[in-house]
Every structure is written in C-alpha cells, then in structure tokens.
C-alpha cells in the first residue's frame, strides 16, 4: 500500500475561550502546513463531553492524543508552543542542532 500516513489527533480543552480558539487555529495551520489534508484533529471540550475525557483518562488540559499512527501518544501541552506539540507527538523530529532554536521560539 502506498500513500501518505494519515494522522488522527484528539485535543482535549477546558472551555473554548478566544485564546483557546486562536491557539487551535494556529495548531491546525501548523498541521496543515506539515501534513496537508492527511490529518484529523478532533477538539473535545471536557466541560461539554466529560465522559470522553474520562474514557481517555484525561486529568489535565489541554492534552493532545495522537491515536494514529500507532503507538498512541498523549501529551499535556502548552498550546502556544506549536513546535513542542509536534515534537512531543513525534510528528516532527528534533535534530540536535535545532533544539536551541525550538527553545528560542518558545521563549520569544
């Protein structure tokens, strides 16, 4: 079978404030830039759907889960750090020479 890998992601948040909505938009933009249309991002507000958070054993938000490709990865995150989110989910690789750049991006 040929073709691109499809990524399935679930993002658990507490409420959909304007800041959270903006961060989700930026995350979607980063994912689209990297993967085109080869990903699904489901956003789950734990205030609206607490049973879904319980089923996934979500104890803190925001948390993002990479369901596919396996293995499943779960990361509690800071939505302002898109690069760290992508690295934490193994969606991009962190090369030694880039480690400092990511830290600079997060601090700036």
Structural write-up:
Helix content is 37%, strand content 22%. The termini are far apart. It contains 4 helices and 4 strands.
| Uncertain stretches | 96-108
* Number of DSSP-assigned strands: 4
Largest sheet: 4 strands, mixed
Kindly report how far apart the N and C termini lie.
42 Å
Strand content: 15-25%
Report mean pLDDT, rounded to a whole number. Answer: 82
SSE ordering: EHEHEEHH
Strand order of the largest sheet: 2-1-3-4
Count helical runs: 4
Which structural category do the helix and sheet elements fall into? alpha+beta
Kindly state the percentage of residues in helix.
25-40%
The whole-angstrom Rg is 14 Å
How would the global form be characterised?
A: globular
Question: What would a concise description of this structure say?
Answer:
This protein has 108 residues and is α+β, with helices and mostly antiparallel strands. It contains 4 helices and 4 strands.
Structural descriptors:
disordered C terminus, alpha+beta, 4 strands, 108 residues, 4 helices, 22% strand, four-stranded mixed beta sheet
């Amino acid at each position: 079978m040929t073709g691109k890998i499809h990524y399935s992601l679930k993002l658990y948040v507490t409420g959909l404030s304007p800041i959270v909505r903006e961060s989700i938009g930026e995350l979607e933009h980063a994912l689209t830039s990297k993967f085109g249309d080869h990903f699904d991002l489901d956003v789950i507000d734990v205030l609206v759907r607490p049973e879904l958070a319980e089923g996934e054993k979500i104890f803190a938000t925001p948390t993002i889960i990479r369901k596919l490709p396996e293995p499943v990865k779960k990361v509690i995150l800071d939505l302002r750090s898109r690069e760290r989110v992508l690295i934490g989910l193994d969606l991009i690789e962190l090369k030694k020479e880039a480690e400092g750049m990511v830290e600079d991006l997060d601090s700036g």
